[in-house]
UniProtKB/TrEMBL annotation:
It comes from Candidatus Portnoybacteria bacterium CG10_big_fil_rev_8_21_14_0_10_44_7. GO terms for molecular function: acyltransferase activity, transferring groups other than amino-acyl groups. This is Acyltransferase 3 domain-containing protein. The lineage of its organism: Bacteria, Candidatus Portnoyibacteriota. GO terms for biological process: polysaccharide biosynthetic process. InterPro entries: Acyl_transf_3_dom, Acyltransferase_3. Pfam families: Acyl_transf_3. The keyword Coiled coil does not apply. PANTHER family: ACETYLTRANSFERASE, ACYL_TRANSF_3 DOMAIN-CONTAINING PROTEIN.
Amino acid sequence: MDVKDRLYFIFRRKTNTLSFIPQIDGLRFVAIAMVVLYHVNIFVTNKVPFDFTRPAPDYWWMFQFLDSDRKGVLLFFVISGFILALPFARAARKEGKPVEMKRYFLRRLTRLEPPYFLTMIASYLGIILLKGHGFAELLNRTFTGLFPSLAVSLVYMHNVIFPHNLSVNPVAWSLEIEIQFYILMPLLAVVFKFTARTRWLLLATVMAGFIFFQHLLQPGVYTLFNYIQYFLLGFLLVDVYLSNYKPKLFPGASIIIGILCLAFIGYADLRQFNYQEYVFVPVIFIFYVLALTDGFWKRVFSFRLLTVIGGMCYSIYLLHYNIIAVVGNRTIFFNVTQNYPLAYLWHAAILLPIILLVSGVFYLLIERPCMDKDWPKKLWQYVNRLVGRNVAEQPGI
């Protein structure tokens, strides 16, 4: 095994052979890239003294693509819908074991909470210390300030309780939406008991209805209500994936369609309610179907570098915003130009490697071990052995 193979297997996410779909990690790469590049863009446009509030029309092509708002997160929501629906769909088709609820919820807890708790607490402490407070002042200086934000974030309630205030880690808002979906998933999985035609008609109707009512009601609190259509889109993708569907297209057609889908995803403006939102969901569906079924796009999104980075997207997502804030506010003084494209590329070249390095270390030390479903048991056994060894080494024992 050469060095590249060793590195690949060191970084590849832990999962059983049945559950590992390399293209999904490739799609995760697309989603996390959009999120990180967007936040780098916000940082650069806020910090670099350009002579315009938004880049000039000459740079629209670049700014519009990087100014992706929440589109990367929406791509993640679709993937979550697919991954969580897959075992329920397999069970309904008699192609897999029934999902045990205790194991389902325990797995979410042991897999996601340790990295989340550590990064949220680290963000809290980092903000306080960077503001110049010592540890002795930590509680009395911040209990009525940041501590409530941390506390409600740790129980995934910040969006509801403090909807107009940023969390100690601002990107955590989407993880609260994900948790709501995880809880409801066993109930939503009832759709897999219906016939395929009924299921598709029901899901398509519900998704279109939610898009309409989201913009009609415009709730001021971010909940699953605002984004459920993206999770349900993952249900439809599960049907396509399990049916072994293969698109019958003219040679080269899938490449052109995929590129057009990527371009639309990159340039669609979803900040205002217009036709693009109704088109955005089907475009994601077509693009993901190509990634899961078409030979060319399967190869693209199975490329090892993409799957490795996509596989550690959770660590990158949790850490990147604060890395940009901490590192960027120091490296911004090394700005060499006020030209928007050059300034962006300059600061991205500084920030992106640091984000990858720090996230990679965190992934290997914290997140990846948590992918082992038996890690709590193994940790407990290790502690018992350690305690037993120390006791045995005591004099007179």
